[in-house]
């Protein structure tokens, strides 16, 4: 069993940290803003925004994570590998459709390629756009189901030989989710709950909208509210909803703030923090299996951001420093947006 105690939300934290979060929140323009920091297991949470708060405290609402869902998919894969149920070098097509003829490059795509954005697949399937464009600002993904994602993968013609180039791909991570479900004979939602959410005690992390009144409402840039996002067949790449408190628990597990008595989970948490590739000019960009990694004067930071049609999320931590930062906001990203820069500054410039 895994024993994870969740610190109370009203933990006093540091007055200096509280002031830091309040000042940072003032730079983010959104109806709802939550900035949360965990230092040495002590949590400080600041909530605000231009909208009137509702009956459920902002830090307890479920926020759409978008691409910040991907570290959960990566941790799931790492745990299944640690359990010996799959291998990073297993070929996805062999697990999804054994014996089916596919393009040679598709045949070479492994689980590692899918997770690390080195599969050669595009960001989204080519036939995704004609059906999505008419609904681009309301529901671009909902009419593209799981079986269509899998078919698009099996008939794909990768742009590059797998393992040779990095190209961010929601398509690839979605295929990973369907592949792990096929390999284990377990639906993705059940698999993620069994292997990641339940062991870490993440009761407020969901793959679909929660009970009425418990989900944050996203907004367009002009403030118009939006319905909950339907990710269709792209579940593994961006379907999660979670509370800032649950997200702190998730990150605290990565920085060693909890005692894990599950060897496979402990091994997976260690595995996803190790650098696995470098890319860009002079290999300036470093990645682990699931996180972007940057150097700072205080040591490396690992982070991932995500955005949906009307919400944003940022998750980051410093391995070995017992520092974690979570940020959520309920307004669509735009060019002059300060959300990610503000959250990143909290992670990288806090002593």
> What proportion strand?
5-15%
Main beta sheet strand tally, sense and closure: 8 strands, antiparallel
Shape, principal axes of CA atoms: globular
Order of helices and strands: HEEEHHHHHHHHEHEHHEEEEEEH
Low-confidence stretches: 1-11
**Mean of residue pLDDT values:** 93
- Count of helical segments? 13
The SS-based structural class is alpha+beta
Total strand count, please? 11
Computed over alpha carbons, the radius of gyration is 19 Å
Strand ordering within the main sheet: 2-1-11-10-9-8-7-6
Distance, first to last CA = 34 Å
Helix content: 25-40%
Summary keywords:
351 residues; alpha+beta; 8-stranded antiparallel sheet; 3-stranded antiparallel sheet; 13 helices; 11 strands; 14% strand; globular; disordered N terminus
């Amino acid at each position: 069993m895994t024993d994870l105690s969740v610190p109370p939300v009203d933990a006093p934290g540091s007055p200096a940290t509280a002031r830091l979060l309040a000042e940072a929140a003032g730079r983010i323009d959104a109806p709802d803003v939550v900035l949360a920091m965990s230092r040495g297991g002590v949590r400080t949470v600041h909530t605000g925004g231009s909208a009137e708060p509702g009956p459920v405290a902002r830090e307890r609402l479920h926020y759409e994570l978008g691409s910040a869902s991907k570290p959960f998919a990566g941790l799931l894969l790492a745990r299944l590998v640690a359990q010996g149920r799959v291998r990073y070098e297993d070929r996805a097509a062999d697990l999804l459709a054994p014996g089916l003829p596919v393009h040679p490059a598709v045949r070479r795509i492994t689980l590692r390629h899918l997770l690390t954005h080195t599969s050669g697949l595009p960001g989204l399937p080519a036939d995704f756009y004609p059906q999505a464009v008419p609904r681009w600002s309301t529901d671009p993904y909902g009419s593209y189901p799981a079986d269509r994602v899998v078919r698009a993968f099996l008939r794909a013609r990768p742009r590059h030989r797998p393992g040779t180039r990095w190209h961010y791909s929601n398509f690839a991570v979605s295929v990973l989710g369907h592949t792990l479900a096929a390999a284990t004979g377990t639906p993705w939602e059940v698999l993620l709950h069994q292997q990641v959410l339940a062991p870490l005690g993440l009761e407020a992390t969901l793959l679909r909208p929660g009970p009425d009144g418990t989900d944050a409402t996203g907004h367009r840039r002009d403030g118009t509210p939006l319905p909950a996002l339907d990710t269709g067949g792209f579940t593994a790449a961006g379907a999660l909803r979670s509370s800032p408190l649950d997200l702190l628990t998730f990150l605290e597990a990565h920085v060693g703030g909890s005692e894990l008595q599950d060897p496979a989970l402990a091994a997976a948490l260690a595995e996803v923090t190790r650098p696995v590739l470098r890319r860009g000019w002079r290999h300036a960009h470093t990645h682990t299996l699931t996180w972007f990694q940057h150097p700072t004067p205080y040591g490396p930071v690992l982070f991932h951001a995500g955005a949906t049609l009307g919400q944003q999320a940022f998750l980051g931590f410093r391995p070995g420093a017992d520092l974690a930062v979570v940020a959520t906001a309920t307004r669509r990203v735009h060019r002059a947006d300060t959300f990610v820069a503000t959250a990143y500054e909290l992670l990288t410039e806090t002593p």
